[in-house]
Amino acid sequence: MERRTFLVSTAAAVAAAGLATPAMAQDKKAVIGVSIPSATHGFMGGLNWHAQETIKRLKATYPNLDFVLATAGAVGKQVNDIEDMMATRNIDALVVLPFESEPLTSPVKAVKDAGKWVTVVDRGLAQAGIEDLYVAGDNTAFGRVAGEYFKANLKPGAKIVVLRGIPTTLDNERVDAFKAAVDGSGIEILDMQHGNWNRDKAFSVMQDYLSKHKQIDAVWAADDDMAIGVLEAIAQASRQKEMWVVGGAGMKEIVKRIMDKDPQLPVDVTYPPALISTALEITALRFVSNTPVYGRFIIGSTLITPDNAAQYYFPDSPF
Amino acid sequence: MSDTALSRPAGASRLPALSALGPLLALILLVILGAVLNDNFLSAGNITNVLARSAFIGMIAVGMTFVITSGGLDLSVGSMAAFIAGVMILAMNALLPSMGVGVPLILVGMAIALAVGLLAGLANGLLVTRAGIEPFIVTLGTMGIFRSLVTWLADGGTISLDFAVRQLYRPVYYSGLFGVAWPILVFAAVAVAGQVAMRHTRFGRYCEAIGSNDKVARYSAVGVEGVRLMTYVLLGLLVGLATIMYVPRLGSASGSTGMLWELEAIAAVIIGGTALKGGHGRVWGTVVGVLILSLIDNILNLADLVSPYLNGAIQGVIIVLAVVLQRGKSSSA
Amino acid sequence: MSAADTSPVNASPGPVLELVDVRKSFGPIEVLHGVDFALRPGEVHALIGENGAGKSTIMKILGGFLAPSSGEVRLDGRPAPYASGAQAEAAGVVVIHQEFNLAPDLTVTENVWLGRELGRVFLDHRAMREGTRKLLDELDSRIDPDARIRDLPVSDRQMVEIAKALSRNARVLIMDEPSAVLTHREVEVLFRQIDRLRAQGVALLYTSHRLEEVTRLADRVTVLRDGAVVRRAMRGELTEDGMATAMVGRDLEDIYPARRHEAGELALEVRSFSVPPLVHGVSFTLRRGEVLGISGLVGSGRTELAEGLVGLRAASGEIRRNGAPVRIASVREAAAQGMAYLTEDRKERGLLLDKNLRENLTLSTLPRFGSPFISAAREEAALTRAIGDFDIRAPRRDMAVGNLSGGNQQKLLLAKTLLSDPEIVIIDEPTRGIDVGTRSQIYAFIDRLAREGRSVIVISSDMPEILGLSDRVLVMRQGAIAGELAGERISETDVVRLVMGTSEERADV
């Protein structure tokens, strides 16, 4: 259960999980609907993988649990998925990672109003108090931890560039926290363009940064997929010695390079796709034990350094 | 109506119609704008970047020009590129133990990419011509199929080329001949060959005839279905070629590889003056269209003109303007 | 210029619609040179002239589609209050276009009522269908009001166009060659409707290349040549020969070529040939140097037979070329057997209207112009030859063929078809919608082909054409050969008798 290491504020719940026994009085199978975005980029790929693995494991452990997994490539599809689950699969609980907050709020609320259990993962709904359980990464910490690293390791007057993700609230939270953290350090942010969490896009954006700016001391790529594209662009310009790169999320290839003390990749910031596993496990507890599992579980973002990288390295995960 | 029968051939020196120059004009304006906004814009490095980046979409768009000219459409090219890249990398990784790191392995990988591209194009083409399904629907379907297949092959993550192979393969994207990067050279060769094929071979003429009116083509002894099939196969091969140039760049493929390439390729074709309904193809126009699309991105990155949130809007405006310029001129000409 | 000066007060009713000294220029070129033209209630006024004489321009100006460069359009003696086709229609001036203005994907009913649909919020489909039914009944037409225009043969489309115009309750009806694509019978129905409208006091403008129709219908004839009126006549004042002479501006010898007498050996034998679903069990032979006419109603299977022979339609049966059995499954294979087909539908099946002359000319024989690269010089040379041989008149060589007149399009199509040097040429409706001058040229070309030892099959709805050209005539009815006439036996009555069958039923539909 290596992913337990991610849990920061859920220690109690995890402890309870350990106590819970599969022996349940009820015969009826509980059905848990799981609705997540499809694997369109590395992070979501990892999240999908973790979701499938966890479902497999939970099914084996708890025979009276059943899961319905639906992945959606767009908001509308996700809304349809949830409506279908309610209408045809007779779910008892819904674990949902909303594509976007606003459009998903009322469909999820409808599930709640029907008396079902609702676990919301990672992206909050627009209206408070709908979900029974909220499991999320900490976007503010994600930006702040990175920013603090930049502040601590760069001299005043240093110049950096930033690649942003797809324009979303989540991206704004991260970037705002990052900016707040480097504020007052004398570090100059030269440029902030969207790389859309995509390798190819990040590659071209970085190429253009390199054409435009003579001096760049460090890059906050904010995502490991983007970091890969950025590193290629830097290599193409033969400017590897001039700058280092910080990505984010904890992709296995990146973690490996940190373990190997790559000077271009000193650290990474976690934003674990395994948070879906946490959400599923805790939700499962609701149906197989009497453990109280209401509440908010925020999984913090921590810094991966060469010293601790080994514990974040999952060679089997696709991400 | 005048009754003069011209007995001499039309002057070969006739200048192309103003409408044909619309996209070129837009391109020149963009270059001037870029040069004014940033000193590094015209640097060799930046020009190489822009051209090399254009190369993938460019090769695909040249193929797309033939498909659209003959009245077809292919939405699957982006997914197809991702799928080909995935299969190519997996195959090379699998063959690594038996073949070892070396040029033969790379060549086998390239052959596989072309073969998969050919088969994918053939599948699209056969569904369109033999099964008689609308190209939009066929390729919308295969778009989803290819995209899912690559995501499945990658287990939702990323397929990465073995590090040692990658080091050997890397120069195919990053180095070149006489200081010109390989992707640019290959793109140029494809563009020239495409232009010649469109203007000076039967295949190009037949594509235009079929797109213009396929009944007339059929009544004129043109093998309509065969030519249509060929356009999809050609496009599949060019997607394979683009993938060969793409894989060494990042050495990986994932579900997000080649995202929206189909729309960029189609947009480039239309900006270049090829009619979306078919019948009139302009390969060099497509090249200009691709360059326009790349340049917009490049200039927006180089100059902090607007909020990055508005990048999409600027792109949209320029695309529409380029086409308006062209249509406006053609109606007055 | 006041209206009162020109309107005479006498027995003849005053003009309802009138052009006074109208000139029209396109760019620097003046195409109408001061034309006076009037339409009177209860009168059919025929406007005749060669293609390009200015008839279309006059009709477009009358119908509100074009504005004159100078001069005046008067409706009821006052300046016409309309500036567009739609406004003209609202004022009771309706044009039946030669180029059908029908939406191919809508049904007959939807087209008839397009723009003036019945019903308030929701469409009243029933009322519209009933209305259409009634209009079509008046035209003796059995077209299904729910059929899509796309699925209708050309003649039916023309009937729909006429029905649509009738439904407009026109005071002035302008008909641009309505009979060009109609069969004999349909033309008769059309004439009855025209007589009825005339009796109701509608002012009619009629154009046709078939001068016998003009003689039959017109109360008044105006002959146009090169954008000016060259002759005005009342009923009976002008013979058909006189009309033709006035149109062309010179004496026309007989437009049909002299008969050839020597027919060569057998070039083609067709036995038990069927083209499902329409044509079944057709057998005939064709000799070198012979012109074989195929007559019959539209829908009798003539075109289907021809398309089956050249591999455009799936067919069964036996074809022998020079005595040896051959299989033909595509136009290409037909070409390899020295057979070529010239379609009746030159705009949709014959020519690429948005391409230039050169690309159209060489499309079906492109492999002869170089491989892998096409030699533009050889194409240009071929075009120069074709322009000379077939007297194709084009303002510019690089213009789109869609902008050529119908006659020149047909000559180009003929040149294209003959570029493959075929031994057997099947020509479907060689002169549809073509003026009399060009027509005699095309007849001469057909005659020349036969004299060169080629075999020609001419499919035509034009009776004089069949009679004037053919050495032998096959008549088709309901997908089979109804009879064959040769030599002295070819007469109009015999052909018509075979076309119609003993009972005067309509062949098909």
What does this structure look like?
The complex is a heterotrimer of chains A (319), B (333) and C (509). Chain A is 42% helix and 18% strand. Chain A has 319 residues and is an alpha/beta fold. Chain A folds into 2 domains: 2-137 and 273-299, Response regulator (Rossmann fold, 3-Layer(aba) Sandwich), CATH 3.40.50.2300; 139-269, Response regulator (Rossmann fold), CATH 3.40.50.2300. Chain A has a 6-stranded parallel beta sheet, with helices on both faces. In chain A, strands 7-6-8-9 form a 4-stranded parallel beta sheet, with helices on one face. In chain A, strand 3, helix 4 (101-113) and strand 4 form a beta-alpha-beta unit. Residues 1-26 of chain A have low confidence and may be disordered. In chain B, a hairpin with a 2-residue loop joins strand 2 and strand 3. In chain B, the strands form 2 sheets. Chain B has a two-stranded antiparallel sheet. Chain B has a two-stranded antiparallel ribbon with strand order 2-3. In chain B, helix 1 packs antiparallel against helix 14 (311-332). Chain B is built from 14 helices and 4 strands. Chain C is α/β, with parallel strands linked by helices and 509 residues long. Chain C has a domain at 290-311 and 328-500: P-loop containing nucleotide triphosphate hydrolases (Rossmann fold), CATH 3.40.50.300. Chain C is 33% helix and 24% strand.
Structural class of chain C: alpha/beta
Strand line-up across the major sheet of chain C: 6-7-8-3-9-10
CATH topology of the domain at 290-311 and 328-500 in chain C: Rossmann fold
Instruction: Give the end-to-end Cα distance of chain C, rounded to a whole number of Å.
Output: 54 Å
Total discrete domains of chain B: 1
- Architecture of chain B in CATH? Orthogonal Bundle
Major sheet: arrangement of strands of chain B: 1-4
The profile of the biggest β sheet of chain C is: 6 strands, mixed
Largest interface: B-C, 32 and 45 residues
Count the DSSP helices of chain B. 14
Described by the principal axes of the CA atoms, the overall outline of chain C is: globular
Proportion of strand residues of chain C? 15-25%
Give the mean pLDDT of chain B: 87
Mean pLDDT of chain C: 85
Q: State the share of residues found in helices of chain C, binned by percent.
A: 25-40%
The proportion of residues forming helix of chain B, as a percent range, comes to over 70%
Number of strands of chain B: 4
Protein name (chain B): ABC transporter permease
InterPro entries (chain B): ABC_transp_permease (IPR001851)
Keywords (chain B): Cell membrane, Membrane, Transmembrane, Transmembrane helix
Transmembrane segments (chain B): 20-38, 50-68, 75-96, 102-123, 174-196, 229-247, 259-276, 283-300, 306-325
